[in-house]
Amino acid sequence: MTIAGFPRTLFITPAAFNHVTGGGITFSTLFRGWPGDRLATMHSDTVPTVDDVCRRYYRLGHDELARWPRFLAAAPDTPGPPAAAPPAGRPAIGRRAKRWIAGNGWPDCGRLIPRLESWIAAFEPELVYTILGTIGMMELVDAVRRRFALPLVVHFMDDWPSHLYRGGMLSFAARARMQALVRRLVDVAAERMAIGDAMAEAYAQRYGVPFSAFQNAVDMDAIDSWAGTGRAGKGTASGLHVVYAGALFDNAQAQSVIDVARAVAALSARGLDIRFDLYSPSHLAERFRPLIETAPCVRLHDAIEDDARFFGTIAAADILVLPVNFDADSVRLVRYSMPTKLPAYLASGTPVLVYGPPGLAQVEDARRHGWGHVVDRRGVDEVSAALAKLSGDPDLRRTLAARARTLAVERHDAAKVRRAFQSRLAAAAGDSAGRTAAHHAAEREAAMTRGAG
Q1: Rounded CA gap, 380 and 401, in Å?
Q2: What residues pair up with 213 in beta bridges, in sequence order?
Q3: Most distant CA atoms of the chain, gap in Å
Q4: CA 252 to CA 265: how far, in whole Å?
Q5: For residue 82, with 0-12 CB atoms within 10 Å meaning exposed, 13-18 middle and 19 or more buried, which class applies?
Q6: Which one-letter DSSP state was computed for residue 164?
Q7: What is the pLDDT of residue 67?
Q8: What confidence score (pLDDT) does residue 429 get?
Q9: Do residue 446 and residue 328 come from a single domain?
Q10: pLDDT over 90 at 236, yes or no
Q11: pLDDT digits (tens, 9 = 90+) for 274-319
Q12: What is the DSSP letter of 84?
């Protein structure tokens, strides 16, 4: 039974609650205040989860998300034999072979095994919320919502339907299966969400149904408290302090971050007193260290999980960097994305340098609303020129920071965003028509399955 606007929500996701990754931080923000006994998460995330928002977890493994060829050889619900360790020297060959066959996404399949089914039944969910994911994850979402006749809420964070399952000899088959699942789940969903307005508009045109927009948000009062020390110390240290805080992915921002590091190194070599500190989860960033730390003025650190230290750090910086890669593969994936760090950047009181190709949602939003200094042509020289301009123009830095703060209050206040998001979930679960439709759809699909068998 739905109580006081908080339906018993089952979150099915490849990225669970944590204080490190963009997804984990966003979900923690949006669900904060949700009663702990009314939220459960089944996930495949390798990052350790936290229990300050959700306390009930089911970790999906090979039994529930089986990858080819294992799922062809092992019977459902029967664990397969452990994989043999690959011979020395074979991993690179294996990766190339997998890429040639399957491209950028190796197919998997989802199975609602009895153990998982019992776990879900014990929780007695009233709603499924999901960011979808691979073929296997979507098959699992579909199986759960049909088995328990649950209304569904889907939330897209990146344009992965345009990006995933490409580039391999057999990608066409996996891609067709993925597209069919996305279409089915979008069609049956009681509520459809996107990460921002640009994605909501594009997806409404693509799928022919309305989408609402929800992304990460910030507690302005808490930020002002945490960031006070940083702001008080801004400008007291010598030189220009540039900061990046966020993930590093090959297909999102890593190459542009490397460009910024090289630009800072070049400016330092020419005599400008400048330093660049990057804060990124070590499991994502460590392999990029040799490409980033090319000069003493550039340093890569692990992500900052403590909120007070994080906001104090970005508030004390002179410039924050928001980079996006320029290559076609990255653009296809993140063209509609709005990064998790953006609301914190806007609220920090620090000017933002936006470095990325034109046409991307975050680049055009910065240009349209004036919260960032935009560099939309790739090149170390272009970044160097922008950093030098910001360094020598304190009025421009103040103007950018003030506009960003105004937008943070208007668009990203956590209390407002969280209330609207949670109200949408409650409406999706409480809509009797939606629940009846979900039940009838499940009955029809079960009958079709029996008939096909």
Answers
A1: 24
A2: 194
A3: 76
A4: 22
A5: exposed
A6: S
A7: 79
A8: 95
A9: no
A10: no
A11: 999 999 999 999 999 999 999 999 999 999 999 999 999 999 999 9
A12: P
Residues 6 or more apart in contact with residue 47 via CB below 8 angstroms: 15, 16, 18, 20, 21, 24, 281, 283
| Residues 349 and 430 occupy one common structural domain | no
267 within a domain of the structure (yes/no) = yes
The crossing angle, in degrees rounded to 10, of helices 414-430 and 22-31 is: 80
User: What Cα–Cα distance (Å) separates residue 93 from each residue in 70, 100, 217, 250?
Assistant: 20, 11, 43, 20
Compute the distance between CA of residue 129 and CA of residue 42 in angstroms, rounded to an integer. Answer: 11
- Please tell me whether residues 392 and 418 are part of one structural domain: no
**Residue 4 pLDDT level (bands cut at 50, 70, 90):** low
Is 2 within a domain? no
Query: What is the enclosing helix (H) or strand (E) of 300?
Result: strand 298-301
pLDDT surpasses 60 at 115: yes
Q: Which pLDDT band, with edges at 50, 70 and 90, does 50 fall under? A: very high
Q: Are 45 and 18 in contact (CB under 8 A)?
A: yes
Pair of tokens at residue 22:
């963009």
Helix (H) or strand (E) holding 178: helix 171-188
**Residues sharing a CB contact under 8 Å with residue 75, sequence separation 6 or more, in sequence order:** none
Q: Find out whether 54 and 17 touch, Cβ atoms under 8 Å.
A: yes
CA pair distance 190, 426, nearest whole angstrom: 11
Residues 233 and 265 in one domain: yes
- Mode of pairing for the β-strands spanning 108-110 and 65-67: antiparallel
Task: Tell me the one-letter amino acid at 138.
Answer: M
User: What residues make up the domain containing 328?
Assistant: 220-411
3-class DSSP state of 57: strand
Measured distance CA(79)–CA(395) in Å, rounded: 64
Contact status, residue 336 vs residue 196, Cβ threshold 8 Å: yes
Same-domain pairing of 437 and 406? no
Q: Dump pLDDT digits (tens) for 154-208.
A: 999 999 999 889 887 778 889 999 999 999 999 999 999 999 999 999 999 999 9
CB 170 within 8 A of CB 99: no
Q: DSSP code of 3?
A: B
Please give the tally of structural domains in the chain: 2
Q: What is the pTM of this model?
A: 0.85
When pLDDT is averaged across residues 56-82 and rounded to a whole number, the result is: 64
Quote the DSSP letter at residue 200: H
User: CA-CA distances (angstroms) from residue 419 to 13, 310, 409, 414?
Assistant: 22, 25, 15, 8
pLDDT digits (tens, 9 = 90+) for 404-448: 999 999 999 999 999 999 999 999 998 644 444 445 445 555 554
372 and 427 assigned to the same domain: no
CATH number at residue 400: 3.40.50.2000
